[in-house]
Hints:
Number of helices of chain B: 19
Number of helices of chain A: 14
Strand order of the largest sheet of chain B: 6-9-10-3-11-12
Largest interface: A-B, 28 and 37 residues
Largest sheet of chain A: 2 strands, antiparallel
Oligomer: heterodimer
Structural class of chain B: alpha/beta
Helix content of chain A: over 70%
Strand content of chain A: under 5%
CATH architecture of the largest domain in chain B: 3-Layer(aba) Sandwich
CATH class of the largest domain in chain B: Alpha Beta
Distance between the termini of chain B: 54 Å
Strand order of the largest sheet of chain A: 1-4
Largest sheet of chain B: 6 strands, mixed
Shape of chain B: globular
Radius of gyration of chain A: 20 Å
Number of strands of chain B: 22
Shape of chain A: globular
CATH class of chain A: Mainly Alpha
Structural class of chain A: mainly alpha
CATH topology of the largest domain in chain B: Rossmann fold
Strand content of chain B: 15-25%
Number of domains of chain B: 2
CATH superfamily of chain A: ABC transporter involved in vitamin B12 uptake, BtuC
Amino acid sequence: MENTKTVRVPGKAGAYFKRNIGIIVGLIILVAIVAISEPKFLTPSNILNLLRSNAVNAIICCGMLLAILMGEIDISVGSTVGLSGVIGAFLIANMGAPVWVTVIACLAVGAAVGAVNGVAISYLKVPAFVATLATQCIGRGLTEIISGGVTIRIRNDAYTALGNTSFNGVSIIVVYAALVLIFTWVLLNKTRFGYYIYALGGNKTAAEYSGVNVKKYNMLPYVLIGIFCGLGGLIWSARLGSAAATLGEGFEMDAIAAVVIGGTSMSGGVGTVGGTFIGILIIGVITNGLNLMGINSFWQNVFKGIIILVAVIIDVLRKGRSKQ
Amino acid sequence: MGETKLLEMSNITKAFASNVVLNGVNLSVGEGEVVAILGENGAGKSTLIKILGGIYKADSGEIRIDGEVKNISSSAVAGANGIRIIHQEIILVPERTIAANVFLGRELRTGGLVDERKMERETQKVIDDLHLNLRADQLVSELSIGMQQLVEIVKAISADARIVVMDEPTSSLSESEVQTLFGIIRLLQEKKVGIIYISHRLEELFAITDRIVVLRDGKMVGDVKTKEADRDELIHLMVGRELSSYYTRNKHEIRGVSLEVKHLKHEKYFSDVSFYARYGEIVGFAGLVGAGRTELMKTIFGAFPKAGGEVFLDGEKISIRHPQDAIDRGIVYVSEDRRSEGLILKNDVQFNMGLVCLSDFIKGVGVNQTAWDKMVEEYRQKFHIKITSPQQLTGNLSGGNQQKVVLSKWLAKNPKVIILDEPTRGIDVGAKAEIYAIIDDLASKGVSIIMISSELPEIINMCNRCYVMCEGKITGELNEEEFTQEAMMTYATRREEEK
């Protein structure tokens, strides 16, 4: 008597498609609209441009995904990008520091901000929004102090090459973004660390009672978010060959938007790198398409806001229906 | 039957996709009548109630109130028709007063402004009518779970109620609170309110109801007068098969002391508690809700901080500061509240089962899916867990299946001491019997089991020894041969009698 019921689980690609069907269709419709009204959109050079200009957002999104999966948020990401970018520029341009020292410094600045956030949130029980609002202010202030309010120019070719090299037209920063996305996917799907993030985001008490060190696993993701932001700052300053006090302003909004559009639940415990990736592309296509159409950035914000609302409403409706 | 009934639901049918949940069910309730709905989980009880409450719409059939056909299209319409549903879960705002909760959504106003005083006065009137020992201006968060349940009832009947549905109202009430509830029900009966009472506890149905309607697999299989009903017959109707034995009890070989607690203290919940448990033994903890049993166990488990005292395992003093420490030493705690403390409802069965032993399946980077699948399959078969796939969300499982998932999660760790807190709360008769068999099997394998239960028959029929707690102290210790409900209740209320 064979009692085992085998259940057909769709293949990896099939499952991915099924889970994200709503936003995939949304992305295709969006691409179609933009491509029809602006033929330049589908040219290889524009697509490479689109990927490049969203690479840093993708890196930040990986961090934001971790925070939102825990049922929390990190609104300090933009200011951390600015702080590490400006410190990097300051070191290499004003102090003449070697490239490797600058790289490590950028990542370390990010990690430090993340550690402050993590300790405040996890060990001192400061609500994530408040803790990261505070570090956002502090970070932005320090960025202005260090830069002196002026743009720091970088004239170190080895450093600027870190953001301006390309392979067959594919920018190196797209490669960085791909690596961070893969890293985050592996982290969330193939390590205990990732499972614990889902567990404590889904139900902190149950996770704690199951022996998960919730304090530690609530704190460490913030350090990682900080490192991603440090990388973001490094890449931007290298790419632009300069860093200004305004670097990274508003990055948190694009990141939250992409993560939420990607189907991540703001209450935590539910969300994927795959969904977030599509969210990033949706935000990217909107920005790029509207740019091509010559619509100014004020209107772009309006459209982004509408898309976020629509995406979340669709998601809520879909979940509501599947419950019954 | 010439008389018009207060409520008549006739020929109610409801299907979700191809799954027929209710099939031609009839239910009638007269004025002042208490009707029980009995059935296993999945029998269709909650769907029937949700249709009455306007949450679901029946595919066919009609609902009459005082003989008049009503289209109950939303919960607001249900409310307007005097239908009140008291859900099993408590839905109160903890940081607001009882009065504010009772009048939530229909606040009393004087000159456009909310009149707190007036709401408190009105609420207090209802509370006094029901002879409850509560003050309308108390914060809900200060009350015990049992008292909060009673506040739900106050809330339901403070507005004009004609039909009150109580879904497992006693699941978190102590024996004395149950008596209070029965008092309330009798009062409502006098006021000609019709009551639908859903419970798994047959003893209660016999004590309070007039008629018992039995549902199985969406069909009505029995409608009997309580006076004429027979316990075994009801179980038979409900389960559709004979339950050869409800409780499983084999003789276990009791070995040495496993866990010993000496003079354990908590700042707020209990003081100077000492007890021991042995391998192969099931030790019960009886008492009223709020006696401090759950808090005691959570303190031993490291989830609550202790204020003093010592814990020994195998004669060796141990220090437990986090649940992790306890789990590492083989002491596990299965919470009474599996939805908020036991499971991650947004995640699937496989995830939940593997959480405690995750290091067995994930070493460094990479998941050993085969081993993990095997573990899930092993427990699925062993405990007869009904799931469509290991990827089914635990939030969608019935109480019994959820409890089995939680038990699997812990047993995979091969614990020495298992603390079970109300292990059969809110699960149906069939699943209960299965859980008892699992517990018995563990004890006979030499595991040390500590079981908190507010159902005295459960303690009497399962345990080898039991402690009784009252107001944060152990007031009695009984051996198997001394087990009687009277003895346990005496100890459980000892403090009050001394006064």
